[in-house]
Every structure is written in C-alpha cells, then in structure tokens.
UniProtKB/TrEMBL annotation:
<dbReference type="GO" id="GO:0006565">
    <property type="term" value="P:L-serine catabolic process"/>
</dbReference>
<dbReference type="GO" id="GO:0009088">
    <property type="term" value="P:threonine biosynthetic process"/>
</dbReference>
<dbReference type="GO" id="GO:0004794">
    <property type="term" value="F:threonine deaminase activity"/>
</dbReference>
<comment type="pathway">
    <text>Amino-acid biosynthesis; L-threonine biosynthesis; L-threonine from L-aspartate: step 5/5.</text>
</comment>
<comment type="similarity">
    <text>Belongs to the threonine synthase family.</text>
</comment>
<keyword id="KW-0663">Pyridoxal phosphate</keyword>
<dbReference type="InterPro" id="IPR036052">
    <property type="entry name" value="TrpB-like_PALP_sf"/>
</dbReference>
<dbReference type="GO" id="GO:0009097">
    <property type="term" value="P:isoleucine biosynthetic process"/>
</dbReference>
<dbReference type="Pfam" id="PF00291">
    <property type="entry name" value="PALP"/>
</dbReference>
<feature type="binding site">
    <location>
        <position position="368"/>
    </location>
    <ligand>
        <name>pyridoxal 5'-phosphate</name>
    </ligand>
</feature>
<feature type="binding site">
    <location>
        <position position="130"/>
    </location>
    <ligand>
        <name>pyridoxal 5'-phosphate</name>
    </ligand>
</feature>
<dbReference type="GO" id="GO:0006567">
    <property type="term" value="P:L-threonine catabolic process"/>
</dbReference>
<dbReference type="GO" id="GO:0003941">
    <property type="term" value="F:L-serine ammonia-lyase activity"/>
</dbReference>
<dbReference type="InterPro" id="IPR026260">
    <property type="entry name" value="Thr_Synthase_bac/arc"/>
</dbReference>
<feature type="modified residue" description="N6-(pyridoxal phosphate)lysine">
    <location>
        <position position="104"/>
    </location>
</feature>
<keyword id="KW-0791">Threonine biosynthesis</keyword>
<feature type="binding site">
    <location>
        <begin position="231"/>
        <end position="235"/>
    </location>
    <ligand>
        <name>pyridoxal 5'-phosphate</name>
    </ligand>
</feature>
Length: 395
C-alpha cells in the first residue's frame, strides 16, 4: 500500500491531469465487454463507472473499489422539453438517478477508491451540498470517515441533512465554496485528509463515465451538442476528457460540440470566454437561485477552456428566472431536476434563440441533480399551501 500524500496541482498553476496509456486496448473487444457487463446484475462491473474500468482506472486493484452501482442512469426524451428548447431532437441524461441523487457519484466512487488504495481513512471536501452527500454515501459504504465543509448560507438544507444522515462530520463556515477550497489546499495534508473535490484528478477520471455511458446508450453516435451546467467546471472538464478518449480510441468518429451554461450571478467562466480573454477573473460574491452553481472561482477553468477549444464549444449565462422556468418544465415532464440542472435546458433554449445552435441540430442535456435535492426552490413556484387541496374524508 502506498501511503505517500496525494497531490492535486501542478507547478504551472493548473490542476493535475492523468494521462492514461491506452495503446494496448482493443476497441471492438471493449465495446462487446461494455455491452455484456451492462447486462450483468449485482456485480461491480455492472456499475456505470466500473464497466469502463480500462478507460478510468486500469491499475486500481478491485478490492479497494467502493461502489454503489452508480451510473446506469436513464436517458429520456420529452416532447415538452424538446419543443421548449427548439432543437430537432433532445435527450436528457438523468444523473439525478445516481445513488446520492447527483452526477457527483460517478467521480466520487473513483476518488474514494483511489484514496483508499493509498491507505487514507479520512476523506474531505468543501461543498454546496451535492459533493458532500456523495462523499458521505461512499465513506459510509466503506466504513471510512468523511469531513465536509459547507458554507453557512445559500445552500440547500436537504443536501446538508442528507450529508449528516450518512454520518459525515459537517463543519460550517462563513464564506463560499471557493473559501473552502482554499482552506483544504492549505490544511488538508496536515490533517491527513484525502480531498475529494474535483481538484482531485481521479474524480475527473470517474466522471468521464457519464459521456461513456451516454455514448453507449446511443450506440456510439453522439448528438451534435452536449449541454451542461457549469459551476466548478469539473463536469465540463470530465466530459471533454471522456470525449477525447472516445474519439482518439475510435469509439466515436465525430466529436459533438459542448455548451457550458452558467448562472448569470456566478458566471466568471462565461464572461472570460465571451470577452475573448484567457485569464479568469473570479466573481467575489457569486449568487444564484441554483445554489449548486454558487461558485466564483472555478478550480477547473483551464481544463474547461481546453474542452471548448477541442470541441468548438460555446458558453452562455442564464438568469434565475430562466432557470426556474426550465426547471418547472423538466419537473412537469416527470424527469425532475434541481435548479442547477435546469440551467442546461435554459441555456440550450437561449443558444437556439440566439442562433448559436441550429434548430435542425440534436442535443443532450445532462440532468445533474435530483428534484428533491432543493425543496426551497420547489416552494418558490409551488405556491404552498394554496396548491394543495384540503378535503374532508367521508366515513
Ligand atoms: C446539481 C449540480 N449541477 C451542476 C453543478 C456544476 O457542476 P460543475 O461544478 O462540475 O461545473 C453542480 C456542482 O458543482 C451540481 O451540484
Ligand atoms: N456543486 C458542487 C460544488 C463543486 O464541487 P466539486 O465537487 O466540483 O469540487 C457541490 O456539490 O459541492
């Protein structure tokens, strides 16, 4: 067992990125194996992450893997949501169906498993609530300790309760996700904590599986666009790295374009791209109804910028009203989403209206978090108690 400390950043000022050697892989054989593993039930290899182990963590010994059969999420089509966005065909990939209710589980299973293989027992993150509940579920599954830092305001209470319920030690602080990242950068090593935020390159490797599964769902032909919400920009980074793997290995013969959608009140990445700049100016006071996107200094911005270059991608920013309008529609379609996820649908609609995406094109939006994650957001449009009819039951 290797007990050396874990490194997250590189001397160049950016984050570490893993480079895998895929030269010995046989793509046709892997396609068959991915297909067979998916059909298995109750085995590690049926997981929507570990099914792709050869592309994610080829050298990680399986006894260290902590898995909850993550991935294997639904891919849906809703005529209502499609016509709202204006594209010809739309898929919604519901990462909200993961064990802890968000896309974080795809990366967390990989990060916790890697930390465990290094001999760590204490795992940490700072979070607006989804990363923390994901870490807590994996730590609980393996009997490990999780320590999470959560801002003392503007987070969804359900997520904090979920984190506590899985047994995490929750520490709250005055500040934002960005302050929490700075604290971990400074003190995690001294406290013997293995950091599970997306600064951790193994998180990114695990999250690549979202696009692997999407591609497999669609028989290795992806739509013209993949649209996703952007906060810390881990998902955009992982998506791009996964696309790069699929394309260079020959699983897909065309790269889709990527659209990253931020909330207007927390949109430093969009602002940098829109102004043609190449240096991110952090948003000091990020603020949006989509609390999961309340991030002013996204650690993965360089990786996400490279993904836009690779895929000829674009960005957009949407208002809180646009986010809630899209959320209502996704909820009414029966799929459901927390506000951050709805930003992708709102952004797709905006990009079609602006002509950046053509109405004849096809798209997939990543539904990143479950409807039940944020009941405060639900209250804002459900008009309680008027929308619930009180009836007298006859005996
Ligand atoms: C539900 C949800 N959607 C979107 C995001 C944004 O993803 P990323 O931080 O990877 O950009 C987050 C958190 O970061 C989230 O929790
Ligand atoms: N919305 C996220 C914030 C980003 O976290 P990270 O896992 O990318 O570091 C959360 O749920 O905390």
């Amino acid at each position: 067992m290797d007990t050396s400390p874990m490194w997250y950043s590189c001397n160049c000022g950016g984050l570490l990125q893993l480079v895998q050697d895929f030269r010995a892989l046989d793509v046709e054989l892997l396609k068959r194996q991915f297909h067979e593993r998916r059909a298995e039930r109750h085995t590690l290899m049926a997981s929507g992450v570990w099914r792709y182990k050869e592309l994610i963590a080829p050298d990680l010994p399986t006894p260290y893997i902590v898995s909850r059969n993550e991935g294997n999420t639904g891919l849906y089509q809703s005529e209502r949501v499609r016509s709202f966005t204006g594209v010809r065909q739309l898929w919604l990939k519901a990462q909200s169906e993961n064990p802890s209710g968000s896309f974080k589980d795809n990366g967390m299973t990989a990060a916790v498993s890697h930390g465990r293989s290094l001999g760590y027992r204490k795992f940490a993150c700072t979070s607006t609530g989804n990363t923390s509940s994901s870490l807590a579920i994996y730590a609980a599954t393996a009997g490990l300790t999780s320590v999470v830092l959560v801002p003392d305001r503007d987070v969804a209470l359900n997520k904090v309760l979920q984190t506590l319920a899985y047994g995490a030690q929750v520490r709250t602080f005055t500040g934002t996700y960005d302050d929490g990242i700075r604290w971990l950068d400074k003190y995690a090593e001294a406290e013997g904590l293995y950091v599970c935020n997306s600064v951790n390159p193994y998180r990114i490797e695990g999250q690549k599986s979202i696009v692997f599964e999407l591609a497999q769902d669609l028989n290795w032909t992806l739509p013209d666009w993949i649209v996703l919400p952007g906060g810390a920009l881990s998902n955009a980074s992982a998506l791009g790295k996964g696309l790069h793997d699929l394309y260079t290995l020959g699983f897909i013969d065309k790269l889709p374009r990527v659209a990253v959608i931020q909330a207007e009140g927390a949109s430093p990445f969009h602002q940098m791209i829109a102004s043609g700049g190449d240096a991110l100016t952090p948003e000091v006071k990020p603020s949006t109804v989509a609390s999961a996107l309340n991030i002013g200094n996204p650690p993965s911005w360089r990786k996400a910028r490279d993904v836009l270059h690779l895929t000829n991608g674009v960005t957009a920013a949407v208002s809180d009203n646009e986010i809630m309008e899209a959320k209502l529609l996704i909820d009414r379609s029966g799929i459901g989403a927390e506000p951050a996820s709805a930003a992708a649908v709102a952004g797709l609609r905006k990009l079609v209206n602006e002509g950046a995406i053509h109405s004849e094109e096809t798209a997939a939006c990543i539904v990143t978090g479950h409807l039940l994650k944020d009941s405060d957001a639900l209250r804002t449009y459900l008009d309680l108690p008027e929308s619930i009819q009180h009836v007298r039951l006859q005996s």
